[in-house]
C-alpha cells in the first residue's frame, strides 16, 4: 500500500431502478493526480464521480478517503468539491458571492473572504467581474466562476463532471490547458469526467476507460493509446483497424490471411485474439508480395492528413497518410511488428455491442 | 400595422378592465367622497334641522289643505355634495379594521409555515407524484366555498364531530365555533392552496444541482434552505402572501359562518352598509376605499422584498 492513495473504491456496485450502472468497480486515486474517467454515455463514469462526491450511496462496496470509510458521510462533510456539468451557479448571488459561498459557511472573516475570492478570481482570470450577475455571463465565464467557487474551499480533490461539455471547441481547448495549469499550480487531485477522448489524453496523468459499468483499462494516456487492452478501448481512444486473428505462438500472429511477426507474447497457443493497427501507423507502399495489397476505395481530405479506405479481401483498412493515392489503384499496406497490438477477445458480448454502436457509420472495420 | 393589430388584440381586455375594474373603482371613490344634503329651491345649502323644520311645516300645510300627493312639491331638495365626513367616520371602525388585518396576518403566516415545507417536498418528488400531490392540494377547491365552510361549522359545533370525539374520552365540550380561532382556521383551510401553488411553481424551477452545489460547498440541510432555497423562492413567497392575505382581510362569509357574528370583520361591516339594515353606501364605499389603500400599502411592502418582480402580483 503506497502512502499517497487519497481515494480508494473497493467493489463499488450501484443499480438504478433495477438497472446495474456500476459492476464492482475497484479504483485507487493518488494525491496530486489528474485522473480522467472516460467512456461513452451511460458507462457509469458520472455515477462513480457522484459516489465520490457523496451524492449517491453505493449499493455495495466501500469508498475510502485516506483509508477511512466514508460511504455514508454527506457531501458537505467530504474534503472534495465539485464543478457541475451545468455549472449550477446560484442565480440570486453575484460572482463575488457565488465564489464566497463556501467561505461564508465557514464563518470566515470578511477580509479573509475578500482576499481568498480575489485570489480565486485571479486564478480563473475573472478579476473585475465581482459585482456582475452570474446569469449575465457567457458559458465560459460561468464555468470559470464554478471552478473558482469549488476551489475556494481548498479541497483535497476536485471533481469535474464534463465541465467543458457546453463550450465551443476553441474555448474548450483553451480551458483544457488552463485547467491542467491550475491543477499543477494548486497541487491537488482532479477527477475529471468526459466522453471526449482527446480531452482525456490532453489533460490526464491517468485515464480510466469505462464501459457498461466496468473499468476497461487504467493507465497513462500513452499506455491507453499505444497499448489498449481490448478492442473497445482501442476503438474508443482514437481510430483503429480491428481485425480478428489467431495467436500461433509467442511473437507470431495470423490475421488478414497471413502470418506476421509481432512483439506480443503470453497467449495460449491458437488463442483467438483481436489485432489492432492504428491508421497513422500504416504506410502506403507500391504493391508487392511482402505486404498486404488492396484496392483504394475512397480518399477523404481531413486537413492534416488524408483518410484512405483500402479493401484487401474482406477487410476494409483505414489509413492516415499525408500523400493521397488514386482511387481505384492497387496499393501495398505496410506496417512494422511494433505497430501490431494484440488483444485478448473481450469476454462478454455486451462490450462488442457497445463497440458496434461506436462504429456507427464506419462499419466494416471489424468483423 | 402590426402595432395597430396588437392594440386591437388588447381591446377586449381593455374593455373588460374599464367596465369591470376602472368604472366600479371610480364609483366607489365617488360614493366615498360624497353625501346627500338638503338644499332649498334657490340652491342654498340648508342645515339638517332647518330642512327638517321646513319639511314638517310643508307636510302640515299639505295635510291641512288636502293637497293631492302628485301636487306636493317640497321646497327642500336632496343634492349630492362632496364631503370627507365618510372617510373620517371610518375611524370609528378602526378596531374592526385592525382586527381584520391582524387575523388575516395570522392566517397568512400560518399558511406560509404549513405550505413552505410542503411545497418544497412536492417540488422534490418524482414527476408523477408531484402531479398527484398537486391534485390533492387542489381537490378541496373543487367543492363549493360555502359548502366547505358549512362542513367546518358541523365539525366545530358544540355537538359537532370533534367535540363528540373528545366526549368519548370524557373531555370537553370545547367552545370552538364562534371564536377567533375558528375564523382563522376557516381562512387557512380555504386559502392554503393559494399559498402552496405559487410556492410550488417557483420551487420546481430550482435545479437539484443548485442544491447539490450548495451541499458540496459545505452547506448543511438548514444552510441549503436558508441560503439557497428561500432566497430563490422569494417571488413565490410574495405571491403566496398576496394571494392569501387579500381574500382573508376582506372576507365576510367566513367570519359570519364560523365567527357567529361576534367576531365582525371589515368585510362584514362593508356588507352591512350595502345590504344590511345599516344601509349607507357612502360609508360602505369609504370603508372599502380605506381598506384598499391599506392593502396597497401592504402589497408595496411585500413587493419591495421581491427585487426581481418575477412572481407577478396577484392583485
Chain-wise SSE layout:
The complex is a heterodimer of chains A (367) and B (315).
Chain A: E1 5-16, E2 19-30, E3 34-38, H1 45-53, E4 60-65, E5 68-69, E6 80-83, H2 95-105, H3 110-123, H4 139-151, E7 157-161, H5 169-186, E8 189-194, H6 197-203, E9 206-211, E10 214-219, H7 221-226, H8 231-236, E11 241-249, E12 252-255, E13 258-261, E14 271-277, E15 283-285, E16 292-301, E17 306-312, E18 315-321, E19 330-334, E20 341-344, H9 349-359
Parallel strand pairs in A: 3-8, 3-9, 6-7, 7-8
Antiparallel strand pairs in A: 1-2, 1-4, 4-5, 9-10, 11-12, 11-14, 12-13, 14-20, 15-19, 16-17, 16-19, 17-18
Helix pairs in contact in A: 2-3, 2-4, 3-4
Chain B: H1 2-9, H2 11-32, E1 34-40, H3 48-65, E2 76-82, H4 85-90, H5 94-123, H6 127-138, H7 145-156, H8 161-168, H9 180-203, H10 208-216, H11 221-232, H12 234-250, H13 253-258, H14 266-274, H15 281-305
Antiparallel strand pairs in B: 1-2
Helix pairs in contact in B: 2-15, 5-9, 5-12, 9-12, 10-11, 12-15, 14-15
What's the architecture of the largest domain in chain A, going by CATH?
A: 3-Layer(aba) Sandwich
Strand tally of chain A is 20
Beta-strand content of chain B: under 5%
Q: Based on Cα principal axes, name the global outline of chain B.
A: elongated
